[in-house]
Amino acid sequence: MNQQKISSKIGKECDETYRKVFNEIVDIMHNDYAGCEDKADWDQPDFYLGQIKDIDDNKFVDLVQEYLLDFKDLHTGFDYINKPKKDIGFTVRRFEDHLYITSIKKEERLKMGDKVIALDGKGISEIAKENEKQLRTDVHERQKWESVLSLFQKAEIETKQGDKRILELNTYDPTPYDPEYSVQQLQKDILYMKLTDFMNHDALNQLIRNNEDKISTYPYLIIDVRVNRGGSDLAYFELLPYVFDGEKVDIRNFSNETTLTNCTKRNVSIRLQMLQGALDSIEDKETRDQIYFMIEELESHRGEGFKVDPFVKTRNLNF
Length: 319
Prior knowledge:
By secondary structure, the chain is α+β, with helices and mostly antiparallel strands. It has four domains: 3-71; 90-168; 177-243, 2-enoyl-CoA Hydratase, Chain A, domain 1, CATH 3.90.226; 247-319, no CATH class. It is built from twelve helices and 13 strands. It has helices at residues 3-32, 45-49, 57-68, 124-130, 132-135, 146-149, 201-210, 212-217, 240-243, 265-281, 285-300, 310-313; strands spanning 90-95, 98-104, 115-119, 122-123, 154-158, 164-168, 181-187, 190-195, 220-224, 248-250, 260-263, 305-308, 316-318. Strands 1, 2, 3, 4, 5 and 6 form a six-stranded antiparallel beta sheet that branches. The protein has a three-stranded mixed beta sheet with strand order 7-8-9, with helices on one face. Strands 10-13 form a two-stranded antiparallel ribbon. A hairpin with a 2-residue loop joins strand 3 and strand 4. Helix 10 packs antiparallel against helix 11 (285-300).
């Protein structure tokens, strides 16, 4: 067998593997995804299947990511696990027609409060229209601009003083994520709490216990969750007594809508694995009791599709 035939055979086998993986992703989005009913027929999987021919891993990752963008969901994505992409060294958030610098990782030529007013000579509104699908939402403050910024070479920067300059954009090795749970005084009557995620239940509870006197006595409390790397609803239970009056909160009063969990076999298995893992690192008894309740509810509805969220079914939270 000559080299050309060997290469052709390997290529076909790779394409078949890509198709198998892609079809599994489609199955997840059509059955296990929380928006599978609300967003039925939003996607065009056959269009993307037709593009799987003589491609490599990089092209396949891009193809799947492009497919997932059809769902316009900020919580979906597909990427390498152990091959992080380089980034631009800073993050932004859009307000009106400007991109404000919200954090600086490695790009030392910028300062907090600077704003991007143009990229390669194009205004932000024009770029947003051209990259509407990649930004995923029309809500300016929720748009994800970092991947779009990487498509450009130069940014026009305006400082808080009104000075303008051109910055040639660089790429950097990504900075490992370091969660932040902190409390500080902004003014004599304002306390500021920053929580970048809700993953470490015990760390959050310890932060609250260590600052209980301040949280209880300051007239104003700002809780900054803008980064929001995700986590569990259970992690903020200890905060509720400082936010709501009374000894009980009925979370059903927060909304007239019913929150549902898609209890497919796959989802329940993944959720149970996550909850069991949480139990290994959580010592707080009340939080553990809530997790045990959720595990029982999920087990009882395995394979039954959409059911009332077990967290909501607890209904009353006692302080």
